[in-house]
């Protein structure tokens, strides 16, 4: 076991009871994104978040997550945002354009905005890979997004104290 405990990763989940969350969810591939949303909401509630402090807004596709997140940050006074989408590679170059566009723009909003934005975009070669990432085979990504949101809000608040 390492003696360098100073750098040990934190394993406790911060209390989420006073945190306000915005979740923006793409309707494309809703059989994936609805499960991600459900997992995220359950994890937030388990960490103490109040139902009335979880705002859920739907947008047509992952590309609309960009506008959805910036508007939510602007008007709803949330402490952190989770962007949820599922992009599955098809026969056209759309996959790359959508993934790159959304990733770059959410990264920009994340670094320049007032609240953390959690990147909850699954980008997979096929539907099977997406399902593996929600059914426990390769994680339950919705829960991970929720935990990341709580930790990043806690991080942000810790600097403002
Ligand atoms: N949106 C997604 O969230 N996931 C996808 O896999 C996805 N595939 C798309 C493939 C094509 C060919 C097109 C035209 C759009 C796709 N979209 C997808 C929708 C996209 O994110 C956006 O909603 C539309 O392009 C309208 O701006």
Automatic annotation (TrEMBL):
Citing just one GO molecular function, the answer is: 6,7-dimethyl-8-ribityllumazine synthase activity
Residues bound to 5-amino-6-(D-ribitylamino)uracil:
28, 62-64, 86-88, 119
- InterPro entries to which the protein is assigned, alphabetical: LS (IPR034964), LS/RS (IPR002180), LS/RS_sf (IPR036467)
**Which keywords annotate this record?**
Ligase, Riboflavin biosynthesis, Transferase
Give the record's GO biological process terms: riboflavin biosynthetic process
Any Pfam family matching the protein: DMRL_synthase
This protein's record includes keyword S-adenosyl-L-methionine: no
Superkingdom of the source? Bacteria
Organism listed in the record = Alloprevotella tannerae ATCC 51259
The catalytic residues are 94
Q: Under what name is this protein listed?
A: 6,7-dimethyl-8-ribityllumazine synthase
Which NCBIfam families does UniProt cross-reference here?
A: lumazine-synth (TIGR00114)
Q: What class of enzyme is it?
A: transferase
